[in-house]
């Protein structure tokens, strides 16, 4: 079998078109322009592409984009003050503080300081708590993007066996919650799981979010399964020339693609959907802050 490719880039374009339509309706009918603030502390070269794409796409959908680059030695107090100012600014509907933060800053404190209504990353405990208890908060962008791709590819997910490999607060745990809400039977596997290949082999849906290049092998995959690869790992690519690198996922793609029914590529899979869902969450947050029904803007 050769897996069909789930084109995250094309799907993200569709999501963004929907966001752009909502933004223009919000402007025309309600005089509201959604605003997204992105705060970056220090210069992490790996995140530069991500940031550039994010800022450009925010503007392309017609939203206001506020961009703050703070020096790497910014104090925790200064960052918290910046977050407070954004919380209080009515032109800012969504706030994203790029992670990881430099070591002098406590990430948990910063996330806790963000107004949950503006927490478009969905990382605040109020939002993770709402997700865990079936409420309507803001849902983390990467798992939301994965769910949208799965539902687009498979339709109703009820009764399917899903394995989520990885248990981070940002991807693994919220992903498992979303799949559970979609009526999957969910296993969360991790570095201490006894028989990881066996757990993966039992699953109709595999979501790989471990952050280890090509760790999940082709012969672990159940024939016909749907594979969502969250990993974005930069590895050396001497075949491209000295000092060159390339991006790979957490799944050994070439092997897995001969076994799986459907698979997301890296790049061009989950990554673009993450950004599209960030924009979608910003519209959702804007609507709620203005007491508007997102389905009837
Ligand atoms: N508060 C916070 N929220 C985040 O969502 C967050 C963060 N911090 N810190 C950094 C990570 C990383 N991340 C990416 C999203 C999209 C791509 C993406 O679109 N990647 C392209 C390729 C990019 C390339 O070519 O290098 C793709 O997969 O096709 C990458 C990385 C969000 N993050």
TrEMBL record:
Q: Which family does it belong to?
A: Belongs to the tetrahydrofolate dehydrogenase/cyclohydrolase family.
Q: Where is the Tetrahydrofolate dehydrogenase/cyclohydrolase catalytic domain?
A: 6-121
Recorded GO molecular functions are:
methenyltetrahydrofolate cyclohydrolase activity; methylenetetrahydrofolate dehydrogenase (NADP+) activity
Q: What gene codes for this chain? A: folD
Against HAMAP family, the record matches this protein to: THF_DHG_CYH
Query: Which UniProt keywords are given for this protein, alphabetically ordered?
Result: Amino-acid biosynthesis, Histidine biosynthesis, Hydrolase, Methionine biosynthesis, Multifunctional enzyme, NADP, One-carbon metabolism, Oxidoreductase, Purine biosynthesis
Superkingdom is: Bacteria
Q: Where does NADP(+) bind?
A: 166-168, 232
One cellular component (GO) term of this entry: cytosol
Per UniProt, subunit arrangement is: Homodimer.
Q: What species does this protein belong to?
A: Gimibacter soli
Q: What is this protein called?
A: Bifunctional protein FolD
- Please give a single GO biological process term from the UniProt record: methionine biosynthetic process
User: Residue ranges of the Tetrahydrofolate dehydrogenase/cyclohydrolase NAD(P)-binding domain?
Assistant: 140-289
**What reaction gets catalysed by this protein?**
(6R)-5,10-methylene-5,6,7,8-tetrahydrofolate + NADP(+) = (6R)-5,10-methenyltetrahydrofolate + NADPH; (6R)-5,10-methenyltetrahydrofolate + H2O = (6R)-10-formyltetrahydrofolate + H(+)
Function according to Swiss-Prot or TrEMBL: Catalyzes the oxidation of 5,10-methylenetetrahydrofolate to 5,10-methenyltetrahydrofolate and then the hydrolysis of 5,10-methenyltetrahydrofolate to 10-formyltetrahydrofolate.
Q: What is its EC number?
A: 1.5.1.5, 3.5.4.9
The pathway where this protein functions is:
One-carbon metabolism; tetrahydrofolate interconversion
């Amino acid at each position: 079998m050769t897996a069909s490719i789930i084109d995250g880039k094309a799907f993200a374009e569709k999501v963004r078109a929907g966001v752009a339509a909502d933004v223009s309706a919000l402007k025309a009918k309600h005089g509201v322009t959604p605003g997204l603030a992105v705060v970056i502390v220090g210069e992490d070269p790996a995140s530069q592409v991500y940031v550039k794409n994010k800022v450009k796409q925010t503007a392309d959908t017609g939203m206001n984009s506020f961009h703050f680059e703070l020096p790497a030695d910014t104090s925790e107090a200064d960052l918290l003050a910046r977050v407070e100012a954004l919380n209080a600014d009515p032109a800012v509907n969504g706030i994203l503080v790029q992670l990881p933060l430099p070591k002098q800053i406590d990430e948990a404190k910063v996330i806790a300081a963000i107004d949950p209504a503006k927490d478009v990353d969905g990382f605040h405990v109020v939002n993770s708590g709402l997700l865990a208890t079936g409420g309507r908060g803001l849902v983390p962008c990467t798992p939301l993007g994965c769910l949208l791709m799965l539902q687009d590819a498979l339709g109703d997910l009820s009764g399917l066996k899903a394995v989520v490999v990885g248990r981070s607060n940002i991807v693994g745990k919220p992903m498992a919650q979303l799949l559970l809400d979609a009526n999957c039977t969910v296993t969360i596997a991790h570095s201490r799981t006894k028989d990881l290949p066996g757990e993966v082999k039992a699953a109709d849906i595999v979501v790989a979010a471990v952050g280890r290049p090509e760790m999940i092998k082709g012969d672990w995959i159940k024939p016909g399964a749907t594979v969502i690869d969250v990993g974005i790992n930069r590895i050396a690519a001497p075949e491209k020339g000295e000092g060159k690198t390339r991006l790979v996922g957490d799944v050994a793609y070439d092997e897995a693609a001969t076994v799986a029914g459907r698979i997301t590529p890296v790049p061009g899979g989950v990554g673009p959907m993450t950004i599209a869902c960030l924009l979608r969450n910003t519209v959702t947050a804007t609507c709620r802050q203005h007491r508007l029904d997102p389905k009837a803007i």
